[in-house]
Design a protein that fits this description.
single chain; 227 residues; alpha/beta; seven-stranded parallel beta sheet; globular
């Protein structure tokens, strides 16, 4: 009986363990191939399986809306936090049939004044998350690429040390991966920093990459004042 009681005791460390938080960058369009939306649903399933909270750009259309909606169905509204600039809300918070959006379908939404505030808030939530937190890029356009490259630069500069992973659906990011190799060979990216961005081919691989992510040993040793 004594052993049974001891087995039920939860240590303070276990009780206060933080859940992983993953920021997903992705397009507000669905893409031509159905594989892109399917990848979003599969990623949501893995987030649910591993107790991961999603923070994302707050839109409800395309891949962006699909990953949020799928995770809310699986894990509930508290599992998703969308952060969207006010000027974009009138475009990206409208459903495909031009009707209003039920917040329970997409989780909690915070409206911020501008793009910079959005990115800072998303990064802060990831940095405050537990082990396995990080950043994932699904397929997307200019905005997705800009966010991915900025968060990669922040990693290189030592602003954060979280994983940065691209979900390479149907070879979508092959060009980016080749560009990194070219930048290394041309002397513009240090070889040790070539793996700041890691590739995953399945949703399972994405989560594994986040948990096993190794910070580059040649990142800039810059001291950043905490805000």
């Amino acid at each position: 009986m004594e052993n049974e009681v001891k087995a039920q005791v939860v240590s303070p460390q276990t009780a206060t363990k933080k859940s992983p938080v993953v920021c997903v960058f992705c397009g507000s369009s669905p893409g031509v191939s159905p594989a892109h939306l399917q990848a979003a649903r599969e990623l949501a399933q893995q987030f649910h399986n591993h107790g991961i909270t999603l923070v994302y750009g707050g839109g409800v259309r395309g891949i962006m809306g699909e990953v949020a909606r799928a995770l809310v169905v699986l894990s509930g509204p508290s599992s998703v936090h969308g952060i969207i600039p006010a000027p974009l809300a009138q475009y990206e918070r409208i459903s495909s049939d031009n009707t209003g959006v039920n917040d329970d379908e997409y989780g909690r939404t915070t409206v911020v004044p501008d793009m910079h505030t959005r990115k800072q808030m998303m990064c802060k939530e990831v940095m405050e998350g537990g082990e396995g937190s990080g950043f994932v890029a699904l397929s997307g356009g200019y905005g997705t690429m800009e966010e991915l490259m900025e968060i990669t630069t922040w990693n290189m500069l030592g602003i954060h040390g979280k994983g940065v992973v691209v979900f390479n659906v149907e070879h979508y990011y092959d060009g980016l991966i080749q560009w990194i190799r070219t930048a290394v060979s041309a002397g513009f990216v240090a070889p040790g920093n070539a793996r700041i961005i890691v590739e995953g081919l399945t949703a399972e691989e994405i989560v594994k990459c986040l948990w096993e992510y190794k910070v580059s040993e040649v990142r800039y040793g810059v001291e950043w004042r905490k805000q």
